[in-house]
Amino acid sequence: MKQFKLLVLLLILFAGCSGNNQKSDEPKKVAIVVSTLNNPWFVFLAETAAKKAKELGYESKIFDSQNNTALESDHFENALASGYDAILFNPTDAAGSVSNVEKAKKAEIPVFCMDREINSRTAATSQILSDSYSACVELGKLFVDTLQKKGQYVELLGIVSDNNTWNRSKGFHSVVDNFPNLKMVAQQSADFDRNKAMEVMESILQAHPQIDGVFCGNDAMAMGAIQALVAAGKSHVKVFGFDGSEDAVIAVSEGKLAATAMQYPKDIAEKAATFAHEYFGGKRDFPQKLPIAVDVVNKSNIDQFTAYGKKE
Containing H/E element for 152? Predict the structure, then answer.
């Protein structure tokens, strides 16, 4: 009987060792959870992260949260239950997404935030973020010069629960509010969405038909605003965006968009994937926040840029 028990124990131990070896031989898996794939900029961010993860030898899958924190929570639950080893994360909500990241941390799964941040300094392993505030200070200066320090303008805000919305707005206003002859006649959220921005702009124009400029928290909203302005016969209004999307770069070159701010999603995504790779290799000392510089793009320097970055 004792020999039988010893044999069973040995078989269990052997099976356990075999299972562990098999697991260690399998490629690690990286979940890429993004706020939305309804915006080409985020599509590029996600696909670049997936490409870099593959180059580093890992399997990956992209999850679309559709700007819905509840769906984002489902993606995290799925990633944790399915054995993903790291999460490259573009949050839907600075505050609402914290609990998802904390769940991953509790499960010892590293999370690397991309572009959007969460309101926690300890939950994520690292947050790789564009320097939106500084970029919008520079955009604000260009806005003031373009409008010759006077006139009426509109601001289209992004998602109000996203810190990027307010970092960009605050950077812009830190400059523009110093010029009393520049008057903001409307400030409204369009959720970083092109179609919603067009509808919001149409509504604003009914109440304020005489405007000189529009500052938008991203390029999608800028393109929607331009559609509404052109339809209303107001293509002379100066529109400013933020992101460096393909549509925006083309619009700047054609003189339809006064300026945008070029983020570098390739740098952000590749850095996040590389951080995950380094984590798998044993590294644990990552910067809590890693700022990525942003460049202002207008007609004077458009030849240096292409969609989502500088020309090589």
Answer: strand 151-157
